[in-house]
Amino acid sequence: MQLLCYKELYYINMEELCRRSTNTMMGFMMYKELLKSKGLKSTPQRIMVLKMIAQSGHIDIDQLSQNFKKSEINIPIATLYRILGELSSVGILHTVTLSVGKTKYEIEKGEHPHFLCKECGYLEDLQVAMNDIITIAQNACTHSTSSASVMLHGICQNCDSFSNTKNVQHK
């Protein structure tokens, strides 16, 4: 199968675009309206990036590029960086900077804490009210704050289970 060049995306119809991204026309319209509300043109590339991130939850640029190639769509990495920057700057995407120097992207959901597995890099949203955490931290801080993030580091259940199984086998 031949990869689609990102410029060819302009010429495929919307039904084909939705089929290739495994989402419905309803999803397409939702992303189109979201982009319009932020003053951005709804290009096929932007819509495909949004759909891919929404499906993945948290994704870095390398994973995003690989996923597009698996979907037979070739979007240059420079174009992906530009799109991610635009979507982040208007508040559609939230960037999560990991301690390992990578950045993962997610659809903006408001402030929330994350868990990061130090073994496999698994990143998970935690369902905790950030308002309480921020209020306690701001009360302890004498400086003016503009944003806050909370990242818990540890070992996920999968890695922990693997580690325990591995230790048992070595005894």
Folded structure, characterized:
By secondary structure, the chain is an alpha/beta fold. It is 47% helix and 16% strand. The strands form 3 sheets. Strands 2-5-4 form a 3-stranded antiparallel sheet. A 3-stranded mixed sheet has the order 7-6-8, with no helix packed on it. A hairpin with a 5-residue loop joins strand 6 and strand 7. Helix 2 packs across helix 3. It is globular, with a radius of gyration of 19 Å. The termini are far apart. The N terminus and C terminus are likely disordered.
Elements, N to C (H/E):
EHHHEHEHEEEEHEH
Which bin fits the share of residues in helices? Answer: 40-55%
Read across the widest sheet, the strand sequence of neighbours is 2-5-4
Question: What structural class is derived from the secondary structure elements?
Answer: alpha/beta
What layout of secondary structure does this protein have?
Layout: E1 4-5, H1 14-20, H2 25-37, H3 44-56, E2 59-60, H4 61-70, E3 73-74, H5 77-89, E4 93-97, E5 103-107, E6 114-117, E7 123-125, H6 130-140, E8 151-154, H7 157-170
Parallel strand pairs: 1-3, 6-8
Antiparallel strand pairs: 2-5, 4-5, 6-7
Helix pairs in contact: 2-3
